[in-house]
Design a protein that fits this description.
single chain, alpha/beta, eight-stranded mixed beta barrel, binds ligand C2E, binds calcium ion
Length: about 575
């Protein structure tokens, strides 16, 4: 490879050009510039240069093994040939990948003209080295976490892409062709914000640093550690090397949190949630694997386990999301309905009322069970409009029944109030709206609450319940026996009816212990002046047993399944006429 020899500077250019204006121009330029000549044989010579050029050349040559070279002659030669095809000026970036003194120089070449078969060019050089280094440093800073110095979130992804494009990894991928050959592990420190609040940010920083260094010690050379958030770490590990599988790696990572951390005199026990995404080189996009690890981490926070990403889990959440979209639409289009299940007086067999149960028959999905869509509605907040819809529909049904029957019927309707709705909405005003709009009296409605509605904020719950009582509505405690089930605190609340959960009732016949529990509940409820409803009565035998135990009402398939509003009215009118259950 030929390079341009600086030591071959000719006598001044004006001797050739007959004009010292050109040399003067070169000298006055604020950037390194030189005039080069190329003769017909292709030889390139420097004919004039300015002080900046000589300085640049000086810096370069003093650190060059062979002094006297500035840029590759090949480059100038190529640029000159290009200019000879046409054009006046050309620029290119020249870089010298010297490990000690790397250089990046912008080389510009301008054609000046030809004299006696010799072409003259003005070459100028701008040293971009510092600028590029600054840019690279800045980039590196942008990729790293300022506290720990390890990669940040952006840096993590870049570093993974870097490692995966390595040839070594491609070889590795052949070895472990079966299954995943790398994993992304997301770690979230469980109680970090508490430590931060309690002990202050400096101790918090110290904790992060200690965790980072403990994690780093667990990893092998080619693994990557990053701080992906305030109290979140990301780890990239190769699998299949040294027979390390993901379980052993996770167990090792968990051991990082086993021994307490001593920070500025404090002993802190840390816990961490760990989510894992698995990937295969050449098949999976590593950014997907990162997302999967983060998705698994969310599960891990709930389960307190190490969670491996599984597609089914994502499918479930996708399903939930599309269910949410469809449910929103169904609510807007008034596509939900209420079914009414009769409540029977166990001593007389009379129909004393109905429970309103939400029904959703989607044209595409078919019938969706409330046990599927109610939790979705609770998660996304749709439970508030859904709950209001149920209240007003039930109230309007009551007034329509009265109209059809030509008299005010003695029947009540129970409407379920979700705990989420109970805490988020002003349920008393929702109930008030419903009874006013339907022009019925408050005691026609029973509101079915679960214990969870009370537990989250007992004072607020008690207040809301008093407001509901002020509207003259009836209050029922739903699913009794499944939750906290403390009759002592229920006693302090204005509850009229206790609904004994179906699971309790069903097991009564097979489990003697259940019978005594139900008996105890029934007698306590009686003592507290509450009525009782047994849910899920499916047989005559159960119905009789419950009646004998003193339970007030029964609800279940033995009497009737949930009915449409019209069927329910017929059922009521029929039974009330005959007076028999
Ligand atoms: P829940 O309040 O305990 O309602 C009773 C459930 O038991 C209903 O299920 C009813 O159809 C079912 N059931 C009644 N008798 C029997 C029986 O003899 N055997 C069996 N195996 N089941 C019986 P459904 O309609 O599927 O409703 C399930 C749950 O969804 C309800 O449980 C309630 O928690 C919730 N839900 C339904 N509608 C609404 C609503 O409008 N708002 C709210 N917040 N929740 C609702
Ligand atoms: Ca209920
Ligand atoms: Ca129930």
């Amino acid at each position: 490879m030929h390079e341009l020899r600086i030591d071959s500077i000719e006598p001044m250019a004006q001797a050739v050009l007959g004009d010292d204006q050109l040399a003067g121009l070169v000298r006055s330029l604020p950037i390194a510039a030189t005039i080069v000549r190329r003769d017909t044989s292709g030889t390139i010579r420097v004919v004039a240069s300015n002080a900046v050029f000589e300085m640049l050349y000086g810096i370069l040559s003093s650190q060059c093994e062979i002094p006297g070279f500035i840029v590759e002659e090949e480059l100038l030669d190529r640029m000159m040939q290009q200019l000879e095809q046409g054009g006046v000026q050309l620029s290119e970036r020249w870089s010298r990948p010297d490990p000690v003194d790397p250089r990046e120089i912008d080389v510009s070449l301008a054609r000046l003209g030809a004299v006696e078969d010799k072409s003259y060019y003005l070459a100028s050089f701008i040293d971009r080295t510092t600028e590029m280094q600054n840019q690279r440093n800045l980039h590196r800073e942008m990729l790293s976490d300022s506290l720990t110095g390890i990669y940040n979130r952006t840096g993590f992804e870049e570093a993974i892409l870097d490692v995966l494009s390595d040839d070594a990894v491609h070889e590795m991928s052949d070895k472990t062709a079966k299954g995943a050959n790398y994993a992304v592990i997301a770690i979230d420190l469980s109680r970090f914000s508490q430590v931060n609040e309690y002990a202050g940010a400096i101790v918090g920083d110290e904790l992060i640093l200690t965790v980072a260094s403990r994690l780093k010690n667990m990893l092998r050379n080619r693994d990557i550690l990053a701080r992906t958030g305030g109290d979140e770490f990301g780890i990239f590990v190769h699998l299949g090397e040294n027979s390390d599988d993901i379980d052993t790696i996770c167990a090792r990572l968990q051991s990082v949190f086993e021994s307490p951390y001593s920070l500025s005199g404090l002993e802190v026990k840390m816990e961490a949630a760990i989510g894992v995404g698995l990937g295969t080189v050449g098949e999976d996009d590593p950014s997907d694997t990162i997302r999967q690890a983060q998705f698994a981490l969310k599960q891990a926070k709930r389960s307190n386990n190490v969670e491996l990403y599984r597609k089914e889990v994502l499918d479930i959440s996708r399903h939930r999301f599309s269910l949410e979209t469809d449910l929103r639409r169904a609510l807007q289009n008034d596509a939900l309905s209420l079914a009414y299940q009769p409540l029977i007086d166990l001593s007389t067999g009379d129909v004393i009322g109905f429970e309103a149960l939400a029904r959703w028959n989607d044209p595409d999905r078919g019938i969706i069970a409330p046990t599927d869509f109610i939790p979705v509605a609770e998660d996304c907040g749709l439970i508030v409009p859904l709950g209001r819809w149920a209240l007003s529909t039930a109230a309007r049904t009551l007034s329509r029944w009265d109209k059809v029957a030509g008299r005010t019927l003695g029947t009540r309707v129970g409407v379920n109030l979700s705990a989420v709705q109970f805490t988020r909405d002003d349920v008393a005003s929702a109930v008030d709206d419903a009874i006013r709009n339907a022009a019925i009296v408050g005691n026609r409605l029973t509101l079915e609450l679960t214990e969870s509605a009370i537990l989250s904020d007992p004072d607020r719950a008690a207040q809301a319940m008093e407001s509901l009582k002020a509207l003259d509505t009836c209050l029922a405690m739903d699913d009794f026996g499944t939750g906290y089930s403390n009759l002592a605190y229920l006693q302090r609340l204005p509850i009229d009816i206790l609904k004994i959960d179906r699971s309790f009732v069903t097991e009564m016949l097979s489990d003697r212990d259940r019978v005594s529990i139900v008996r105890a509940v029934l007698s306590l409820a009686n003592a507290l002046g509450m009525e009782t409803t047994a849910e899920g009565v499916e047989t005559l035998e159960l119905s009789n047993t419950l009646a004998a135990l003193g339970c007030s009402h029964g609800q279940g398939y033995y009497y009737a399944k949930p009915l449409t509003a019209d069927e329910a009215l017929d059922f009521y009118l029929q039974r009330t006429k005959t007076g028999k259950a």
